[in-house]
Amino acid sequence: MTDLVPVRRALLSVSDRRGIVDFAHRLERLGVELVSTGGTATALRAAGLAVRDLSELTGFPEILDGRVKTLHPAVHAGLLFRRDDPAHARTLEAHGLPAIDLLVVNLYPFETSWTEGADRHQMIERIDVGGPAMIRAAAKNHAGVAVVVSPDDYDLVAAELEATSGALSLATRRRLAARAFARTATYDAAIAAWFAETEGTEPLPPVLPLSLGRVEVLRYGENPHQQAALYAAPGPRRGLAAARLVQGKPLSYNNLLDADAALALAAELAQGPPAAVVVKHANPCGVAMAPTLAEAWARALRADPVSAFGGIVALTRPLDEATARALSGTFLEVVWAPGAEPAALGLLARRPALRLLLGEFPDPRRSITHLRTIAGAYLVQTHDCPSEVPWRVATRRAPTEAEWRDLAFAWTVARHVKSNAIVLARDGATVGIGPGQPNRLDSARLAVARAAQTAARAGADRPGADGAVAASDAFFPFPDGLLALAEAGVRAVVQPGGSVRDAQVVAAADAHGLAMVLTGARHFRH
Question: What is the pLDDT of residues 416-453, one digit of tens each?
């Protein structure tokens, strides 16, 4: 016994007409009757194909400007009747309803319209009703009906029909049904997401609809034995997802993670002086501001030249020739900038292995929902926007004007460093970063050690942390971490506060002449 089902009649109704004429020609050559609607029928007839109007099949015209054309018993009976049920066959015969063996439908371009900035009226008109109903009917009845929802599947279906004299296998019908249900699910999720964004509904709703379209299959994941792909949500893309790859190979999984981390921090610094951010393994390793972009890059590189090798760089100004020349002296995986001068593009073109991205900054204050996976579930949280809580000086000595500037800079950087995070900065540049240690004392010691190593390599007269300020993403549970910073020459500290030992930590700061500021807001990052 065979599982092949012959295709004698096909209903074609598509918004995306890529490839539909060629596909219909292949169906016609196999003797398949073509039934179609509206613009699709017009396009097929213009190509010389014999097409039967759907209204002829239903005996009812399209009405309400095309809103009602496929919502008819003749259509759904033809899709839903069970081929193995004699009673179903008799019912269709009694009502003169023809069977539909192949449904070719793609939906109104709701996601594309959202991306292109359509107004509310246009978006509502792009909500397809009849298309999803037909797709679900055909997919449910895949035992006897095939459904195609993407032009990408036309060749697969036509090739099998041609190889079997006009029939499709159960395996193919099942595969097509799975894709069909995935399409209607993501379509409805996109509509729900649009309503949630435009209506300003709660950020953590009882049900979180996800609609993610695959943008690109990546070479591999974090490691070569892992598979990976990039997916994007519907609507206007922002940040890294909207960047243009000017040169270099496609971005890898790790490139994307690191570039996103660099861009998020650069976006927060974009309103200040020119700045450069260097990221390695999702952690900033050198960040600096300066009067010129080239100088900012030089200072960011000087902060940790060892870690910068093979790193990711994000710049807060369009790439100029001087900065491009300076960047060319270091092996980098990716450079992101909000634009580039032609001369800069010419210089970097000599480094074809370097990936150059140009784009627009994401809004660092935008309320974005972050989603991560755990075993069998998802964690969702709102964006860690910069805190508006007033800072409070906790020590006898207040920071100097220069220290205030560096504390604000170090605090911004610390929010983007993996916890536990300690950031040392001086004169608008990081000098040592201690990320991701299991205790804050180790993070403090690591930041001090890196500052000392960098200063020693550069032959600096001044010890690495001497005169620097420090930022801690969470409170000091004991004075030991603070003392490690004080002994290295740190002069001012910013931290959230909130420990039961705050008084001891403040007393230790006073004893060493440090200024300490409490922000009242923690910024863990895992």
Answer: 999 999 999 999 999 999 998 999 999 999 999 999 88
Q: Do domains 5-196 and 240-358 have the same CATH topology?
A: no
DSSP 322: H
Q: Which of 6, 21, 23, 5 is nearest to 158 (CA)?
A: 23
- Alpha-carbon dihedral sign for residues 498, 502, 508, 510: positive
**pTM (two decimals):** 0.80
Among 25, 281, 383, 512, the active-site one is 281
Q: Residue holding tokens 């974009």?
A: 270
Half-sphere exposure of 380 (CA within 13 A, CB side): 14
Which one, of 115, 310, 97, 271, lies nearest residue 193 by Cα? 115
If one counts every other C-beta atom within 10 angstroms of the C-beta of residue 504, the result is 14
Q: Which entry of 25, 72, 95, 140 is annotated as an active-site residue? A: 140
> CATH fold of 5-196, please?
Rossmann fold (3.40.50)
Structure tokens at 491: 């002069």
Amino acid identity of residue 81, one-letter, is F
Residue-level pLDDT at 69: 67
| Planar angle of CA 161, 164, 167, nearest 5 degrees | 55
- The domain 389-518: what is its CATH number? 3.40.140.20
Q: Are 523 and 414 in contact (CB under 8 A)?
A: yes
Q: Residue with structure tokens 């074609």?
A: 12
Residue 280 annotated to the active site = no
418 counts as catalytic: no
| Ranges in the chain, pLDDT < 70 | 1-2, 59, 63-69, 71, 200-201, 365-368, 386-388, 459-463
Give dist(CA 419, CA 141) in Å, integer: 52
What 3-state DSSP class applies to 423?
Answer: strand
Residues 6 or more apart in contact with residue 405 via CB below 8 angstroms: 428
What integer pLDDT is reported at residue 63 of this predicted model?
67
Mention the CATH class of domain 240-358.
alpha beta
Please give the Cα distance from 452 to 304 (Å, whole number): 11
- E strand or H helix at 5: strand 5-6
